[in-house]
Amino acid sequence: MLTFVGLGLYDERSITLQGRDALEQADQVFAERYTSRLVGADFDDIEAAHDIDIDLRAREGVEQDPEPILDAAESGDAAFCTAGDTMISTTHVDLRLRAHERGIETRIVHGTTAAAAASSLTGLQNYRFGKATTLPFESAHGGDGVPGSVIETIEANRDRGLHTLVFLDIKVDSDREDYMTGDEAAAMLATDWEETVPAVVVARAGSPDPVVRGDRLDALAEETFGEPLHMLVVPGALHHIERDALVELADLPAEVADLA
């Protein structure tokens, strides 16, 4: 059995009770942190909280050499966990399909996702979000500025009156972790749109002190939003309740809200 477990958004307590049980019942537990991570806890905290040992795998250890995970699932109960939900944005469908090819039973224990938190914290209606996108560091895509695919996604959503959730890049090396911040993302996007385009930074969703701050892109580029992780939302056309929510909950200036 291979059980995919979402750890939730913030710390070792963000996991569901079902997820906790799956970790404690597993013979071996694997995890990765290259797609996302818990900023309120490290894997030592998770191990201590659940009295388990975790085999932390690098990207190549999951995507190119999944055999240790599959072998463990074939001979016993293995759990594979990530921050958020293992199949939403931090998708590991390929690993699940490889397990099925070997006749290994799988199941999913869902965790709270960043997409759900972005909707909940901003007050934007979840069914009015279009396609999400990820804004990479310039060094990650070998070019300058914002990739055309990101611009096209946001513009296509805005043309349809839909909101865009922009995930911000994470770089994990053996000795360093870099997280794109909301102000960095706003500065990059501000070069492609006129100053009147509003946006909302969501920082540390799931934590006791999340930050939700809306303004024009160029104004957000001049602010700081504290510790990671950050997301950016570019609103489309606003329902009047969504407008009021952004003004009240995200401190979006009313005159900027009216430009959405």
From TrEMBL:
Homodimer. Pathway: Protein modification; peptidyl-diphthamide biosynthesis. The keyword Methyltransferase applies. The gene is dPH5. Its EC number is 2.1.1.98. One of its GO terms (molecular function) is diphthine synthase activity. S-adenosyl-L-methionine-dependent methyltransferase that catalyzes the trimethylation of the amino group of the modified target histidine residue in translation elongation factor 2 (EF-2), to form an intermediate called diphthine. The three successive methylation reactions represent the second step of diphthamide biosynthesis. S-adenosyl-L-methionine binds at L9, D85, I88, T113, A114, L168, A205, H230. This is Diphthine synthase. The keyword S-adenosyl-L-methionine applies. Belongs to the diphthine synthase family. GO terms for biological process: methylation; protein histidyl modification to diphthamide. InterPro entries: 4pyrrol_Mease (IPR000878), 4pyrrol_Methylase_sf (IPR035996), 4pyrrole_Mease_sub1 (IPR014777), 4pyrrole_Mease_sub2 (IPR014776), Dphthn_synthase (IPR004551). Residues 1-217 form the Tetrapyrrole methylase domain. Keywords: Methyltransferase, S-adenosyl-L-methionine, Transferase. It catalyses: 2-[(3S)-amino-3-carboxypropyl]-L-histidyl-[translation elongation factor 2] + 3 S-adenosyl-L-methionine = diphthine-[translation elongation factor 2] + 3 S-adenosyl-L-homocysteine + 3 H(+). Transmembrane segments: none annotated.
